[in-house]
């Protein structure tokens, strides 16, 4: 979205809705669903030394039994009594001999190897700006963020559930399923631009964002709310109220806030595709770095 034409002069399309997402109509977007990330599980090592150690313990028991010889009693007429006493003594002695083997088994039993901690998830819920509209799959700022996380934040992964043409209403409808599938530790919400360009009532947009924040926090996830701004031709009251929604919701729910996603490139017409709405590939690293100022510290 080129804010050089927004802030500054006029919105350069007679149909803002069509201009914003002509090729990403909501009807088509509703059919899309983000793929659920699949958490990997580390299989524990089979065939531990316990089996071999069990054989050693058996051999030890046999050794105790083999070393036990008959006790000779030769004290005249009491021989039978003595033999009976010997048998009783041996039967009492046998469990005592077995105790070292049992103790060895308890000591030798290896502790179970600790399971590797599953990767924690950053879930992105956004529109075409986060879905990488008009770009190769690896070029969008979310993909670039995923690459950075893979290199610098071991134990974290990224699920991008953004859909071109998405609105806050669509996000509010989808988030429960995404939370259940991905169980994220962090949720990044980048929605609202399409609401504004359609002139959706601010109260409705705010309510949808609020539902998403509440759902994410109820799932024990941290929230990063990424804001947008609207062109001035929508009127001062609307544009200021639109921006205020993000700020007030962030304050109310104690979320992290990035007030304006496109701030690093908004004044540069050359940073946008021909539609004058979506940043080009070379502008995506700037968006990644801009978001990282808030997201990076959350990944502890």
Write a short abstract of this structure.
With about 300 residues, this protein is of the alpha/beta class. It has helices spanning about 15-20, 25-30, 50-65, 80-110, 130, 140-150, 170-180, 195, 200-220, 235-255, 285-295; strands at about 120-125, 155-160, 185-190, 220-225, 255-260.
Describe this structure in words.
The chain is α/β, with parallel strands linked by helices. It has 2 domains: 196 residues, SGNH hydrolase (Rossmann fold, 3-Layer(aba) Sandwich); 57 residues, no CATH class. 47% of the residues lie in helices and 8% in strands. It contains 11 helices and 5 strands, in the order H-H-H-H-E-H-H-E-H-E-H-H-E-H-E-H. It has a 5-stranded parallel beta sheet, with helices on both faces. Helix 3 runs antiparallel to helix 4, helix 6 crosses helix 11 and helix 7 runs parallel beside helix 9. The relative contact order is 0.15.
Q: Which superfamily, in CATH terms, is the homologous superfamily of the largest domain?
A: SGNH hydrolase
Q: How many β-strand runs? A: 5
Helix content: 40-55%
As residue ranges, the low-confidence spans are 7-110
Mean of the pLDDT scores?
Answer: 75
Elements, N to C (H/E) = HHHHEHHEHEHHEHEH
Strand content: 5-15%
The CATH first-level class of the largest domain comes to Alpha Beta
How many strands, what sense, and barrel or not for the largest sheet?
5 strands, parallel
Radius of gyration: 34 Å
CATH architecture field of the largest domain: 3-Layer(aba) Sandwich
In CATH terms, what is the fold-level topology of the largest domain? Rossmann fold
Structurally, the number of domains stands at 2
**Based on CA inertia axes, which overall geometry fits?**
globular
* Spatial strand arrangement across the major sheet: 2-1-3-4-5
Helix count, per DSSP? 11
* First-last Cα distance: 32 Å
- Secondary structure category: alpha/beta
């Amino acid at each position: 979205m080129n804010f050089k034409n927004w802030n500054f002069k006029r919105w350069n399309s007679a149909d803002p809705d069509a201009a914003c997402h002509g090729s990403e109509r909501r009807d088509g977007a509703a059919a899309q669903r983000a793929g659920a990330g699949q958490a990997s599980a580390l299989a524990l090592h089979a065939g531990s030394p316990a089996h071999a150690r069990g054989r050693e313990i058996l051999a030890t028991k046999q050794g105790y039994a083999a070393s036990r010889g008959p006790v000779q009693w030769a004290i005249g007429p009491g021989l039978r009594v003595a033999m009976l006493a010997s048998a009783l003594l041996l039967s009492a002695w046998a469990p005592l001999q077995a105790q070292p083997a049992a103790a060895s088994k308890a000591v030798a039993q290896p502790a179970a190897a600790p399971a590797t901690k599953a990767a924690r998830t950053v879930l992105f819920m956004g529109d075409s700006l986060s879905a990488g509209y008009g770009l190769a799959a690896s070029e969008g700022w979310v993909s670039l963020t995923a690459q950075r996380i893979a290199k610098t934040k071991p134990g974290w992964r990224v699920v991008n559930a953004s859909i071109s043409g998405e609105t806050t209403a669509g996000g509010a409808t989808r988030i429960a399923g995404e939370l259940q599938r991905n169980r994220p530790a962090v949720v990044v919400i980048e929605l609202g631009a399409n609401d504004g360009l359609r002139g959706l009532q601010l109260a409705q947009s705010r309510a949808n964002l609020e539902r998403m924040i509440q759902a994410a926090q109820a799932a024990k996830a941290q929230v990063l709310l990424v804001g947008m701004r609207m062109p001035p031709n929508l009127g001062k009251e609307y544009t200021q109220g639109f921006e205020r929604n993000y700020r007030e919701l962030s304050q109310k729910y104690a979320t992290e806030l990035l007030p304006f996603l496109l701030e690093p490139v908004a004044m540069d017409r050359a940073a946008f595709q021909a539609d004058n709405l979506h940043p080009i590939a070379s502008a995506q690293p700037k968006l990644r770095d801009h978001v990282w100022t808030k997201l990076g510290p959350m990944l502890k």
